[in-house]
């Protein structure tokens, strides 16, 4: 196999609770799902040790190599497993700076692509590499419906989830994750935890009630940096969804609707300036529906 193509999926934080700090990092408790918005990773073997990454789309061409997690992932993989290099092209469709995990998804996608390219099946080593590249990267190696804790390195995946349909609004300007966490610290506002309650409601099949509790401790901080976040969330709430929230550190916001048809109707009614997308939850590892929607897999650390 000389060429591999993989999809790198975006994620939504249905909840994001900040539960403490350790070693200069914020500790999280978050319920997340991947959705069918994705970047495309194409990796081809090289005979030398060079990792060459080309970015295409979403203004990603301006990302410096030393700041590109896809480059870091390729170099870390080759160093860890002693392989030769690769020519990697990342076709971007996930908006940058939107809290959708695009950079982490690309890093995870590169790791998965190179693992397939060089027939590496050491999941534990891949997870260790991923955790060193970003807080969401280890989770996005597998994606799906999960609870992530700590700095994001502790991942409890659920085998399956109900099909969830979202209308996603992406403001033109993003939010810096580092600046958002700094603003959160400056605000010194603390919030009641949501993750456990939302998870229990979803496990009980009370999707509408769960959606009413969707929330994100970084929301006020993100709004202080980019007022378009508040406008996007307000516009979504005006469309009468089950519930709405902001993902990651912003700037993207989402609303959950009962069906795809309602999502499409809401998109047709939206007249704002944000990029509007209809997207659904997806588990990249599942190829068929399982009977038990909420059985838990072993925790990955």
What do these coordinates show?
The chain has 301 residues and is of the alpha+beta class. It has helices at 69-81, 102-117, 123-131, 137-140, 177-187, 195-203, 207-212, 219-225, 228-237, 260-269; strands at residues 3-13, 15-22, 25-45, 51-56, 86-91, 145-150, 154-158, 165-170, 215-216, 243-246, 253-257, 275-280. The strands form two sheets. Strands 1, 2, 3, 4, 5, 6, 7 and 9 form an eight-stranded mixed beta sheet that branches. A four-stranded antiparallel beta sheet has the order 10-11-8-12. The radius of gyration is 19 Å and the shape is globular.
CATH fold-level topology of the largest domain: Ribosomal Protein S5, domain 2
How many individual helices? 10
Domains counted in the coordinates: how many? 2
Mean pLDDT: 92
Write down how many β-strands occur, each being a DSSP E stretch of 2 or more residues.
12
> What is the 3D shape?
globular
Major sheet: size, sense and barrel closure?
Answer: 8 strands, mixed
Helix/strand/pairing category: alpha+beta
**Distance N to C terminus:** 30 Å
The gyration radius over C-alpha positions equals 19 Å
CATH class of the largest domain: Alpha Beta
Q: Please state the second-level CATH architecture of the largest domain.
A: 2-Layer Sandwich
* Percentage of residues in strands: 25-35%
| Residues in helices, as a percent range | 25-40%
Order of helices and strands: EEEEHEHHHEEEHHHEHHEEHE
Stretches with pLDDT under 50, minimum 5 residues: 287-301
């Amino acid at each position: 196999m000389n060429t591999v193509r993989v999809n790198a999926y975006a994620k939504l934080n249905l909840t994001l609770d900040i539960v403490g700090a350790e070693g200069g990092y914020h500790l999280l408790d978050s319920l997340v799902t991947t959705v069918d918005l994705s970047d495309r990773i194409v990796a081809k073997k090289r005979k030398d040790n060079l990792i060459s990454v080309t970015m295409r789309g979403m203004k990603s061409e301006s990302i410096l190599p030393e700041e590109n997690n896809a480059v870091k992932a390729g170099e870390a993989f080759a160093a860890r497993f002693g392989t030769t290099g690769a020519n990697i092209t990342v076709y971007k469709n996930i908006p940058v700076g939107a809290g959708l995990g695009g950079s982490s998804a690309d890093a995870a996608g590169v790791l998965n692509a190179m693992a397939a390219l060089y027939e590496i099946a050491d999941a534990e080593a891949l997870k260790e590499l991923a955790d060193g590249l970003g807080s969401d990267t280890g989770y996005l190696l597998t994606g799906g419906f999960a609870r992530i804790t700590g700095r994001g390195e502790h991942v409890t995946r659920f085998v399956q989830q109900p099909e969830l349909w979202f209308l996603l609004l992406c403001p033109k300007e993003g939010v810096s994750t580092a600046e958002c966490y700094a603003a959160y610290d400056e605000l010194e506002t603390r919030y009641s935890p949501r993750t456990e309650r939302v998870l229990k409601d979803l496990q009980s099949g009370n999707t509408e009630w769960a959606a009413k509790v969707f929330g994100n401790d970084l929301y006020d901080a993100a709004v202080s940096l980019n007022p378009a976040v508040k406008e996007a969330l307000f516009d979504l709430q005006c469309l009468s969804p089950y519930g709405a929230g902001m993902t990651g550190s912003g700037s993207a916001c989402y609303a959950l609707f009962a069906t795809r048809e309602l999502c499409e109707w809401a998109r047709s009614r939206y007249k704002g300036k944000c990029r509007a997308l209809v997207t659904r939850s997806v588990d990249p590892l599942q190829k068929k529906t399982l009977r038990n929607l909420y059985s838990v897999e072993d925790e990955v650390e």
